[in-house]
Amino acid sequence: MEDLTVGTRVEHPRYGEGIISKDNLTAYEIFFERGGKIEITKRNTDLKVLQANEAAPKSTLSIKEIEKVMSYVLDKYGALNEVVPLGEKWHGGMMKLQPANPDLQAKEIPIETFFHKIVMLRDRLRVLEQNINSSKSLTDEEKVDIQQYITRAYGSLTTFNVLFADKEHYFVGAKTK
Which helix (H) or strand (E) holds 143? Predict the structure, then answer.
């Protein structure tokens, strides 16, 4: 539903005609002729706009605006877990670590488990980068020096790019000219 403003005349199938008296974050407070004061969520699809009050200023942020800000903040601090797909050919596969000594037992790990650890490592490196870049106590020179180590770490991990379904998720190290 569109964001409605205070003073907008609406109609509800159960309560009849009403006027929006308050615009809260997730709901409208509406005075109905038949139902009195009722709070209806903004996601309710039963409201029909009879006459919009276009002169009234918007009193609050919309849910979409808040979701956009929250997504930005969570992404900035690495709190959003991106879904990174494993390459299709690896689904159900096993990784076998075979010691050189034949007396020792091999270890098998599901590729999905190993891949999950690689993705977690990448996410933690990204958070480390963000923390370094937003640090107030490091100089720009120190930030660049530390960032070079992280870039080299990404370069060391490029071997695992073969596991990713999409190239957009690949590890990328320092570019050569």
Answer: helix 140-156
pLDDT in tens, 27-50: 899 999 887 899 998 888 888 999
Place of tokens 């034949």: 102
Lay out the sheet containing 9-12: strands in order across.
36-41, 27-32, 16-23, 9-12, 48-51
**Under 8 Å CB-to-CB from 161, ≥6 apart: which residues?**
167, 170, 171
Helix axes of 111-133 and 140-156: crossing angle, nearest 10 degrees? 170
Angstrom distance (rounded) from CA 30 to CA 9: 9
pTM exceeds 0.70, yes or no: no
Question: For the chain, how are helix, strand and coil distributed in percent, rounded to 5?
Answer: 35, 20, 40
Question: How far is Cα 125 from Cα 173, in angstroms, rounded to an integer?
Answer: 13
